[in-house]
């Protein structure tokens, strides 16, 4: 509304000096936004909230439901009954995409369509500048991470041989990671983790961490039905898998490997380079659950190294006879030689589909409801977008666009620096607290966000040798988590091991020790993480409350069930 012509007319109402000052202010904002549109890149420094709100309101006026002369005679014309709802959405009620493609332009909604396209472009720039510069394309889908992974699995299935139905899944005990496979109608092949490090030089340093067992992973990848029958016999039988299937099904029956970057300690990120290499050896797709990994430069470098491996193959730079482990950079310590008796690469390595998915709420601090699908080939990302049925909500796109415009590159980097400081403060604080209470912080240096404190020393089962009494002692530890939650500490988890009798049923699969990432776990522990948006004051407050809760726990009667209800 206030362009140069209208500003000139205001000179008859206010002095020229005031008009010129206003013109300079508006010109700076306009030039800054024009540069965003021209380059498709995030600004170095973000916009103010008032400027972003003005932009969204102006974009809302472009949609047909906000035209002054509108007459809607269709069944879906962006009508909104309650003005509160209309204002909450800036008048953007048409959503994004069309029935055949979530990324398509919608004729009735040029404002919403522009938001959709611009958001996807800025998210791409954000991912590239966060550590994956060769990412080719991405799009934001208005579903949380679990359902977005299901969408990707269904798309990858269509690109695999008709009989493909297995998903190789290095175990991570977070339910949506597993249920997304079940929701896609596919068969998970869980691979229990390896404890410690296969590098002798890091044996002590990494003694408690759980990572992908590459030997077992390769076994599952090459003979998925046989692996399932051997390690998960009940689940295999209940899904109709027979000994005949064990001999018949090879890598061609695998839809993809579904791996994970960040997770609750002592689990550490999967070894993406080595897994991608194994997938290429057998022509199997690779889907990475990078739910909150964008805030970790290390995880993004791991994804980038895996992507470069795929790109090199596509461009013909990786040829038969090349030792792919040498392609790995100094950040790719996950690249390891093949097992004895297995060639370092397949006779005919092939290019594969590689996607990675991240959550908007976990990485950008917006309300739950969005995830980002990204990949290193545009055709693959477009295939996922076109598989989304119908139109979609524009709310996650509006939230992400506003947040990225407000942050800018400088704001994002400051968040990363603060998160790293919080992690260091949390680690040192937990170590000091553990020393005071006779506990231990588990050695998991490859997890850059989550920490775990061993709670086994708090268990007292000396009064009885019965199994029932022992389990009661284990479960008494969960009161620590309840007390911390009562005191306002959210996100803290107390995890019991398989030896405590913890079992979770997911579909036809029975997971001993669910939550601990392992069927043979023996350690109870408390999890705490330093995620983006956290402050050092948050860390200090948590450590103080945890210290008090531990003191109270030690003083309490072992038979007292009220510890979680007492004020500190």
From TrEMBL:
Catalyzed reactions: O-phospho-L-seryl-tRNA(Sec) + selenophosphate + H2O = L-selenocysteinyl-tRNA(Sec) + 2 phosphate
Site (May act as a substrate filter by repelling compounds with a negatively charged alpha-carboxylate): 75
SUPFAM superfamilies with a match to the protein in the record: PLP-dependent transferases
Matching InterPro entries: PyrdxlP-dep_Trfase, PyrdxlP-dep_Trfase_major, Sec-tRNA_Se_transferase, SepSecS/SepCysS
Biological process according to GO: conversion of seryl-tRNAsec to selenocys-tRNAsec; selenocysteine incorporation
Principal subcellular localization: cytoplasm
Listed GO CC annotations: cytoplasm
Residues passing through the membrane, by range: none
Binding-site positions, tRNA: 555
UniProt modified residues of type N6-(pyridoxal phosphate)lysine: 362
UniProt-listed PANTHER family: O-PHOSPHOSERYL-TRNA(SEC) SELENIUM TRANSFERASE, SOLUBLE LIVER ANTIGEN/LIVER PANCREAS ANTIGEN
Protein name according to UniProt: O-phosphoseryl-tRNA(Sec) selenium transferase
